[in-house]
Write a structure and sequence with these properties.
The structure is a homotrimer of 386-residue chains. By secondary structure, chain A is α+β, with helices and mostly antiparallel strands. Chain A has two domains: 108 residues, Rieske Iron-sulfur Protein; 198 residues, Alpha-Beta Complex (Naphthalene 1,2-dioxygenase Alpha Subunit, Chain A, domain 1). Chain A is built from eight helices and 17 strands. In chain A, strand 12 and strand 13 form a beta hairpin. In chain A, helix 1 crosses helix 8. Chains A and B meet through helix 5 and helix 7 of A and strand 9 of B.
């Protein structure tokens, strides 16, 4: 007869509990449930993972004109991406330097960011332009009260932000990722759509789901499995990212039989049978295939809540076709269906993880990246790694 | 003028605060409010009360055929009751041994339990039958990855589960309960209906309510009081359970004037004027009267939330009548009304318990069992008792 | 490039963090965000601020007749104001002395307070009149089981309650407030309406908003600004309260152009151009102008939730006019509009305060009282002041 162990009374940050997580994947066990539930573990993840390193926040072409902006979220911290009047894209905290209200949300275009509370006004470059009635405040220098700015860098049209002043240069952090994805001409891509979901699960449920095709036959049995069955996928833990790729004829950008766009220019014969997922730790997957790319970020809003942002981009030439909107809808419909399948299973898993009878499991042949991800998170939280 | 004491800054598990709770009931005070509110006290209850001892989970006749199953909940922990292909009933955790998803919920019949995530497949006896693509996992032996099984035992058709491997045998735990309820021929009863409620109160509010008739005139003034007024009830703290019984002519199974079923066979003249409640600690009340039985379990889902399961059973002979469904509805209607009256008052009490001006009270002549229950909980939590 | 500081890992009650808060307002910084978010800081506020001092709870004329009662809330603690059969107003906790249920909520008139659970019955003076079946309870003396009573005092028809037996007399606590507001003949006012809101913000967001006109041009641009623009307002930190007053022609009781009531009798020519806000710490603002008064209390229901009660009173003579209800509606409509404007901005601020990039700000020329309030809260919580 089995026995139950009580929920971790021990310190969840005590390293002794994670020996099996850190073994080679064919010997390893998955993370203990408290890593998906504990507020203390979550707080450690935020500090050691989300407040460090580079995070893909979106496309520069989403904000082509001066004054264009959009918002992003990294572990509950809002980031405002704005193209200044000088044409340069910057990343700010949208919290007003007076009372803290967000001076911008969502996306749009403006000449200035004006706080709705007391009309403190910032330029699109983040400088405080006007703060009414601050005459008596001794030593108040508007130059010191611009929007808090985050480090931002760009690769192939993708904007990355870090909240860590000591983060290595972006190019070093990406490693040979540009080689993997170079063939897709990312520079020529144009952002066309974002859809978001607010899920009742830990962010790692979503990442675990994103890095294996083991669930394709059951969760996506009617959607993806007919096009891209589990067997066609390959997994590689690379130094700077994980690679998950499939080799099979037929695009996955739309469901079987739907009208789709022509291939990205320059792709060779073999490459049009390739489908690449690049997993950027901690929580973003860029997918590139013959005719388009999409990328998904799953950011935590607490131990049991995840905000998912799904984004699409197509070659500029494709987006200029007369029938773009009509055909693109086939792509969006497919994703709306597949995403919901994943969302539901992730929320179901979260319920199961609350059970004290649930125990860490072993990894299948398709879960090499799940195991690598568990080890990565553990090492970051326990402080063993950069 | 009165003064207020702040909410317990002291450790709620410090025994000094409970001296008055443990006095003889005619001198005792009720539990301090923090026992209904504090997460720490709640966690101690789960360990010392719910993860120990035997818990009535339902009727074996609810799952008569191989592959039949239903779910139960003990302090947030799900229990899956299933009759195996071998005809034997077992209790499992429904958490999949791979990623933890619940492989079954609610009730139904199946040949196998298949996890919706990756199709790990278990027999109705709990064995892992299939786990796709586990070839690389070193030393992975499916025999060690069946559903986690809980100890199960049966008395008079009632299934009991314990999560404590050291629990005494069920027969010892029940004591002379079979003598009390023997006359109702429980073995011949058939489960017919379950109704559940999710309440915004502590589980002990519900138990406190269930073990006294002191509230009948006010809370059930138009429903129960005309049939079974407060005065007819008697209370007995027995070694293994509490007994609450009424001696009065007329059944309580339906409201006055409604059509009802004939008495259980074999009941003597005196016995048809008897109405028995057996309170099985910590949180189940079996009620038996002339024509049927019902039982209610109030299990916690946190300090301020309770999941209530109300169940009915009738003699098999009764259930086979042509007019069973029609007349049984009279019984169900009565309970749906009475239960809601209790549910509302329990949720109102929870609000009052948050008030720091609220103080422990004294017990009336009808609250002997409330006092005994408070002492039982306190002794378990403080570790003074088995 | 800016850097982010993590959320307070340090003890929020460590005084070293508040030096800038306590500087003169022209040098001071506003409160750190954790003062609006931390459960520990909130708990300290409840003890040091809400469980001490006098709190305005309403008008005596709201309960003119014996048996009249209404409810109030002070930091989650309910207060029942009742006029006894003896004509005297008292303040009680509505928690029944038996099981703790609230014996009265909202407002009404009754001969006795009867607990809905077991019919424990209290007089309107708070005495326990009946407790059924308490015969066995040894030494149970109903005289010791009246409703818990709070200290209550009255000034100019306003009822005040304290939960602190050591609180100074009300008259001492009010200081020269009666001089400031005497001209409005508060004794002759009659309560006419209460409207409440449950907001997703810290109570201090609401108070911060209530004590400055800096936000009038932006938040109330179309409502208040045309009548009472930011420039007409003056701020005074007085020993026992804060004074915020405007000198300008035209009442603010209704929106421009609406029908209004004649001035309060006896107001001089200058006084009809005066608009007085008296801020009673910690969380009540009494506003008096030419034709009426209104007062608002923002009481916390946790760190991120605030219950706001908005009340109106008019001179008795006004309320006796045949057209009172019709014209009074103009006043209520104006408030319903303006309150919602403030409510929305307070909830927006709460979102911004969760951002770790948000930093304490400096005070404008219109925020002297915001700064004084921040210092008051800090001193109370840190225990430096009475």
């Amino acid at each position: 007869m089995d026995t139950l162990t009580p929920p971790a009374n021990a310190d969840p940050l005590d390293p002794g509990q994670y020996r099996d997580v850190l073994r080679p994947v064919d010997e390893a066990s998955s993370l203990p449930s408290h890593c998906y539930l504990s507020p203390d573990w979550y707080a450690a993840e935020v500090e050691s993972i989300f407040m460090r390193g580079w995070h893909l926040v979106g496309r520069a072409d989403r904000i082509p004109d001066p004054g264009d902006y959009f918002s992003f979220e990294i572990a509950e911290e809002r980031v405002l991406l704005a193209r200044g009047a000088d044409g340069i894209v910057r990343a700010f905290s949208p919290a007003c330097r007076h009372r803290g209200l967000l001076v911008a949300q969502g996306q749009g275009n403006c000449r200035r960011f004006v706080c709705p509370y007391h009309r403190w006004t910032y330029s699109t470059e983040g400088a405080l332009l006007a703060a009414p009635s601050m005459d008596q405040a001794k030593g108040f220098d508007p130059a010191g009260y611009g929007l808090v700015e985050f480090r931002l860098d760009e690769w192939a049209g993708f904007l990355f932000v870090t909240m860590d002043p000591a983060a290595e240069p972006l190019a070093d952090a990406l490693g040979d990722l540009p080689d993997l994805l170079g063939r897709y001409r990312l520079d020529e891509m144009v952002f066309t759509r974002q859809k978001t979901y607010d899920l009742a699960c830990n962010w790692k449920c979503y990442v675990d789901n994103s890095v294996e095709a083991y669930h394709v036959p059951s969760v996506h049995g009617k959607s993806l499995q007919p096009v891209a069955p589990m067997q066609v996928w390959h997994y590689e833990v690379r130094e700077h990212y994980y690679s998950l790729y499939g080799l099979f004829p037929g695009t996955m950008g739309v469901l079987k039989g739907e009208r789709c766009f022509p291939p990205i220019e320059g792709l060779g014969e073999k490459e049009v049978e390739r489908h690449d997922l690049a997993i950027l730790l901690p929580n973003t997957v860029i997918t590139a295939t013959v005719d388009s790319i999409w990328w998904v970020t799953a950011t935590p809003r607490g131990p049991g809540r995840t905000f998912v942002m799904v984004n699409h981009a197509f070659p500029r030439k494709t987006t200029e076709r007369a029938d773009f909107a009509e055909i693109a809808q086939n792509y969006y419909d497919r994703f709306d269906m597949v995403n919901v399948e994943d969302n539901e299973i992730c929320e179901l898993q979260q319920v199961g993880l609350t059970q004290r009878a649930r125990r860490p499991g072993r990894y299948s042949d398709h879960e090499e990246l799940v195991g690598a991800f568990a080890a990565y998170v553990t090492e970051r939280v326990l402080g063993r790694s950069g």
